[in-house]
Design brief:
The chain has 386 residues and is an alpha/beta fold. It is built from 14 helices and 12 strands. It folds into 2 domains: 241 residues, Aspartate Aminotransferase, domain 2 (3-Layer(aba) Sandwich); 135 residues, Aspartate Aminotransferase, domain 1.
Length: 386
């Protein structure tokens, strides 16, 4: 739990205690599957590494501290975290989700959990009041919010949604991957569970796939830990170590990602080949007002369309950069460029993705922490190629 320290201080120190055996300042990587018992049932709190591992334990405490939460749980991937969380539901239960969301989340909902009797409604939670009224009913047990969304950067008012369902036995869950705890703390806005694809900003160095959940409720934590142990999609000790190291610079990286976001948007705004820019820091952005209220910065994820919206131009553009790497994923220190329609969102049907704006000409940037002038020069190169 937070002891009132600043977010940066927490990022540096979260979850870490010096190793009592040696004084090592960094948490050791406990590469062990099992633990010695001095007599039957007598051990030091660790029996088997699916259930608990000291490196993962330190990281789970760090996750909790970052979101000002009571509990943190670490999983093998962001989708594994979601998979475990969805298993608290029963057949017949219903989930309301944002309609613009990470393609893998959409696939998990529609191709896996829908087969187990869970019904999903996808609505535009930009306009949370009206959209929720249309689909909410007495079977609704979960609201899945991604804010900002991937890749359209839609914003949902977390507090408004939480207020709306207060006292209704509905879990309000927020995918906080894009904002990170540095820019947005959903539990303070009334959400029940926060999820991250740790693979992205929390890890921050494009070297780990991991996910996490943070929450405050004792009974839900108990349920999730039982599921985590029963289903087994845990984070490994080496990955846990890498993420413990990564989050020490989360505040510094996020500050630079935000700075680069602003600089690159200013550049794109004035470019004659750009049609529309999606970034919550723009006053013209549909969710700008709410973003100003619930976020302390607007991040380094920027999407834009080229004039003409042609697939050929978009493909040429993303293949013409040198500093930007054409790749899936986001949130690392290096800048990545992507074409959502054929990459991250290929698993969403064309008519569905186009309805939310993922057209053939949409390009997504994950701005790294390089110097803005070099990022801009690289984008110039790509503009000149089309
Ligand atoms: C990447 C991502 C996920 C899935 O996480 P993995 O770690 O790849 O399993 C979920 N939500 C968002 C917003 C993401 O960007």
């Amino acid at each position: 739990m937070s002891d009132g320290k600043g977010k940066g201080t927490r990022a540096v120190h979260a979850g870490v205690k010096h190793d009592p055996a040696t004084g090592a300042i960094m948490t050791p990587v406990y590469l062990t599957s099992t633990y010695v018992q001095s007599a039957v049932g007598e051990h030091k709190g660790y029996e088997y590494s699916r259930t608990q591992n000291p490196t993962r334990h330190a990281l789970e405490n760090a996750f909790a501290e970052l979101e000002n939460a009571k509990y943190g749980l670490a999983f093998a991937s962001g989708l594994a975290a979601m998979d475990t969380l969805l298993k608290v539901l029963e057949p017949g239960d219903e989930v309301i989700s944002t309609n613009d969301l990470y393609g893998g989340s959409y696939r998990l909902f529609t191709t896996v959990f829908s087969r187990y009797g869970i019904k999903f409604h996808f609505v535009n939670l930009d306009d949370s009041e009206n959209a929720l009224d249309e689909v909410i009913n007495d079977k609704t047990r979960m609201i899945w919010i991604e804010t900002p969304t991937n890749p359209m950067m839609q914003i949902t008012d977390i507090q408004a949604v939480a207020k709306k369902v207060e006292g209704k036995n509905i879990l309000v869950c927020v995918d906080n991957t894009f904002a990170t705890p540095m820019l947005q703390q959903p539990l303070q806005q009334g959400a029940d569970v926060v999820m991250h694809s740790v693979t992205k900003y929390l890890g921050g160095h494009s070297d780990v796939v991991m996910g996490c959940l943070m929450l405050n409720d004792d009974a839900l934590d108990e349920k999730l830990r039982t599921l985590q142990n029963s289903c087994g999609a845990i984070a490994g000790p080496m990955d846990s170590f890498l993420v413990l190291r990564g989050i020490k610079t989360l505040h510094l990286r996020m500050a630079r990602h935000c700075e680069n976001g602003r600089a690159i948007v200013d550049f794109l705004k004035n470019h004659e080949k750009v049609e529309k820019i999606y970034w919550p820091g723009l006053s013209s952005h549909i969710g700008h007002e709410v973003a100003c209220r619930q976020m302390s910065g607007f991040g380094g994820m920027v999407a834009f369309t080229l004039k003409g919206d042609s697939l050929a131009d978009a493909n040429k553009f993303v293949e013409s950069t040198e500093l930007f790497t054409l790749a899936e994923s986001l949130g690392g220190v290096e800048s990545l460029i992507g074409h959502p329609a054929s990459m991250t969102h290929a698993s969403i049907p064309k008519e569905v993705r186009e309805k939310v704006g993922v057209t053939d000409g949409l390009i997504r940037l994950s701005l790294g922490v390089e110097d803005a002038v070099d990022i801009i020069a690289d984008l110039e190169l790509a503009f000149n190629a089309i």
